[in-house]
Design brief:
- By secondary structure, this protein is α/β, with parallel strands linked by helices.
- The chain has a domain at 4-154 and 182-208 and 255-268: Rossmann fold.
- Helix content is 38%, strand content 18%.
- The protein has eleven helices and 13 strands.
- The protein has helices at 12-21, 35-43, 57-62, 78-90, 125-138, 161-166, 184-196, 214-225, 242-247, 257-263, 272-283; strands spanning 4-8, 27-32, 47-50, 65-68, 96-102, 113-114, 145-150, 152-154, 171-173, 181-183, 203-206, 232-234, 253-254.
- The protein has a seven-stranded parallel beta sheet with strand order 3-2-1-4-5-7-11, sandwiched between helices.
- The protein starts with a strand and ends with a helix.
- The model has no long low-confidence stretch (mean pLDDT 95).
- It holds the Pfam family Epimerase.
């Protein structure tokens, strides 16, 4: 019997999951806001739905699993704002629900370690909105919810190579700053493993084994491409958008033991070097 995944906000991570599920006979329905993106989704074998705009009730009624990638906006969680009652009604037949959150919910730990049991103390507005959204999802009775807190996502088409090639990359230096990362293919394998082994109420950190300063990643990308080392710029004086600067407000290392112990995950890309090398190799003729 064909199983159906409804993917709300069918973006980078959801597409990587669909790529794994479709060959197994899954039907995947993905929402998007634009006709252009709908055409892209069709080309991957996923059935597109323009949303907001179309009725998701029938798709929810048919779904065995639900993945929510759409993040909160200024007014809260956009999915629950429109579909809370429909999702609550569908809870009995949804065998798995996944909500993609962020490690930003932990706030700043001055380079220290956090795990899933660490207190939620975000210092940014985005992080605070995520904490509120997680709580909203957790409040729906009977929902077989799994929360995935994602570190910085990279993968094919999303990484430092383009800026390094253009000569616009900079190594932003802020003492003690570290970020955790996760390759999109490893996100997909974690989600697939969770769907196969549901554990309602579980929270998982999705990151690799090597939290690292951002300037090291830029430097390694340049090395792989055989290009000059991008200039070092002090964080305090660097010209940055408010959004970009806000990412540097928090520094932490994220533990990923739970995905390994509970889901049996062996990371395909355990550090940024392996991930960037694979991206470079794949782009070569």
């Amino acid at each position: 019997m064909t199983q159906t995944l409804l993917s709300i906000g069918h973006g980078f991570s959801a597409r990587a999951l669909a790529k794994r599920l479709l060959p197994q006979g899954w039907r995947v329905i993905g929402t998007t806001r634009s006709e252009d993106k709908a055409a892209e989704i069709v080309a991957t074998g996923v059935e597109p739905l323009i949303w907001p705009g179309s009725d998701l009730g029938p798709a929810l009624a048919q779904a065995d699993a639900l993945l929510v990638s759409a993040g909160p906006d200024a007014d809260g969680d956009p999915t629950l704002r429109v579909l809370r009652d429909h999702i609550a009604a569908a809870a009995p037949h949804l065998g798995w629900v996944g909500y993609l959150s962020t490690t930003g919910v932990y706030g700043d730990h001055q380079g220290g370690w956090v795990d899933e049991a660490s207190p939620l103390a975000p210092s940014t507005r985005r992080g605070q909105a995520r904490v509120a959204a997680e709580a909203e999802w957790q409040a729906i009775a009977g929902l077989k919810l799994h929360i995935f807190r994602l570190a910085g996502i990279y993968g094919p088409g999303r990484g430092p190579f383009a800026k390094v090639r253009k000569g616009t990359a900079r190594r932003i230096i802020k003492k003690g700053q570290v970020f955790s990362r996760i390759h999109v293919d490893d996100i997909a394998q974690v989600l697939e493993a969770s769907i196969a082994q549901p554990n309602p109420g579980a929270v998982y950190n999705l990151c690799d084994d090597d939290p690292a300063p951002p300037q090291d990643v830029i430097a390694y990308a340049a090395e792989l491409l055989g290009l000059p080392l991008p200039p070092a710029v002090d964080f305090e004086t660097a010209e940055m958008t408010p959004m970009a600067r806000s990412f540097y407000a928090e520094s932490k290392k994220v533990r990923n033991d739970r995905i390994k112990k509970e889901l049996g995950i062996v990371l395909k890309y355990p550090d940024y070097r392996a991930g960037l090398q694979a991206m470079k190799d794949a782009a070569e003729p």
